Amino acid sequence: MSVTILDVAKVAGVSKATVSRAFTNPEKVKPQTLQKILEVAKELNYSPNAIARAMKTNRTGNIGFIVYAEQKPIISNPFYALVLEAVIETANKIGYSLFISTDQDITLPTGEIMLQKKVDGVILASQIDSKTVLTFRKNKVPVVLLNNYMDLDGLHCVINDEYYGAHQVVEHLVRRGHKRIGILSGRYNPFICNHRYNAYVDVLKENGIELNYDYVHSVEPNFQDVYAAVKNLLIQKQRPTALFCNSDMIAIYAMKALIREGVKIPDDIAVAGFDDNYYCTVVEPELTSVHVDREMMGTAAVNILHKLMCGEEVEEKTVITKPKLIIRGST
Amino acid sequence: MSVTILDVAKVAGVSKATVSRAFTNPEKVKPQTLQKILEVAKELNYSPNAIARAMKTNRTGNIGFIVYAEQKPIISNPFYALVLEAVIETANKIGYSLFISTDQDITLPTGEIMLQKKVDGVILASQIDSKTVLTFRKNKVPVVLLNNYMDLDGLHCVINDEYYGAHQVVEHLVRRGHKRIGILSGRYNPFICNHRYNAYVDVLKENGIELNYDYVHSVEPNFQDVYAAVKNLLIQKQRPTALFCNSDMIAIYAMKALIREGVKIPDDIAVAGFDDNYYCTVVEPELTSVHVDREMMGTAAVNILHKLMCGEEVEEKTVITKPKLIIRGST
DNA sequence: ATGAAAGCGCTAACAG
DNA sequence: CTGTTAGCGCTTTCAT
Questions:
Q1: Interface test with B, best of A45, A53, A76, A245 (most B CBs within 10 A)
Q2: B235, B240, B244, B225: which is closest to B184 by C-alpha?
Q3: Which residues pair with A321 in a beta bridge?
Q4: How far does Cα B176 stand from its chain's mean position?
Q5: CB of B203 within 8 A of CB of B167?
Q6: Sheet of A156-160, strand order
Q7: Does residue B32 approach strand D to less than 7 Å at its CB?
Q8: Is 0.70 topped by the overall pTM?
Q9: pLDDT digits (tens, 9 = 90+) for A102-159
């Protein structure tokens, strides 16, 4: 049997109510009594039972981080890893613990959303559907969307300015004198990919460069697919001299492909990525990329959620982080 | 107010005990009644309150994953990311959720270990000290050590056969005809580093190659440090022709350094790493490494913990995973 | 400033 | 097979 509030009360010669106060509202108990209680508690190695407390207060001190299952692996996903790192740290700092799961984990075979574990709030990352959002709302669980936008009344979202980031990097390529710029676009989150692609198209237009569809490839983020796309680019009469890849992973694979084909980076072809993963500095030459402030995204999401969980109104519905172009040896 | 077991009981025309049974021991209730209850529950959108349940059963359905704080970043640590991935998945499969924190997070300024959040069991990863282990034990919380060994009565550990792995890879280098083999050793977890280093020394001895301390470098896992060590190796009259790096990260940095110095890999110098991170296939040439089965380690830890939490005895105290040499282009 | 008492939502004997 | 009942450990009025 573990030691309860009653044991402490007995030994300290007070009622359990007073012990309870000593731990929740220390200022409401006479300093003398307080000290005594704390002493006894330490002596008995007592610490309040979080579950019983949760039961009374109806707050668990837990928040859920739910990722779109297609994004798996979550933890070793170089994008969400950094977000998670910040989320965990920020959550811990304000006294919350984090549950990580996928939308699949919380969906029953029947399609119902299961809130099996009690959480005081949730962060929904990536393309979680609106049904999930609605279910949480119905259960009065505050929600913050991360890296996703949904036009739902009063919904809080934390997103990155994809268009701006892509605009920056493509413009950088143009400024370096490139006129034949290829793009390898991923096929994931359309919300993100479209913004990045649109920026590419716009920059070309702004600079009077005609869009050449031979230079536009949509690829899966695996080496085979990227290699095939790169080969296709290389056999064209007018090879592109620069390559904007929609994600670092694609860029890395493109670099591998180019190196194998004996193409010099950046002299023959410059390569740029997006996200600024840790891969960027692992490869040689190091990869120019657009740094997405995942730390800020994670922190912002937790902070908004925190206010929401405390019952505060949060005016600013959408937080948009500004990415930053990082120029390295590949361009 | 959320809907409780009592609401369901009333509408279904049974007692709350029966409703409770319907959810915990469905076979103990008449099929007819069961169906009725389930219907009503769905209709009322009822789901059992996990906290109240935890309070009664004294089991939370949570397990803690605690990492040595020096290992930070945890999530984006390419070693623990994969362990965690497996741990989360396995835990979810058996109905548990995971809390992630560092030993620092659970240690009060006074040095006391705080079990703030109730967990049914913990996995302690990396160099957690024995005091932490003892604290959990004292509180009857089952413990499993991961990637760490401690000679504590009846303590369960999951470790990797570091010596075997290092032996494999160095032997591979010898078989490829290398006689001058350098080593870049990390300065982290001595339990691990020593095993790897010892294997290196032994393989040389087994093959009649004299240990040359000019080829032995201890480095921090950052580019500057590794670059300096590599330069030092390159200026020796008798350059090593192969390099065994104690971790992939070090190997990657060594490769970058060699490429910058115009050294051809593997023709001039072969490079091998350890762990088989995802970095290995990102670089060109791809890195020969020793695959540590982190998935297995994570799964094993959870499975042992699961049995322990169910009150079962687990005979096998130490699970040792066998790593596997993966030969790639760098050797 | 402190105590008495009610009850959070659920489970697990024990009866029937 | 089902109902009754007694708490799990804590917080929180309401009194004192």
A1: A76
A2: B244
A3: A160
A4: 32
A5: yes
A6: A318-321, A156-160, A143-146, A121-125, A62-67, A97-102, B97-102, B62-67, B121-125, B143-146, B156-160, B318-321
A7: yes
A8: yes
A9: 888 777 666 666 666 678 999 999 888 898 899 888 888 999 999 999 989 889 999 9
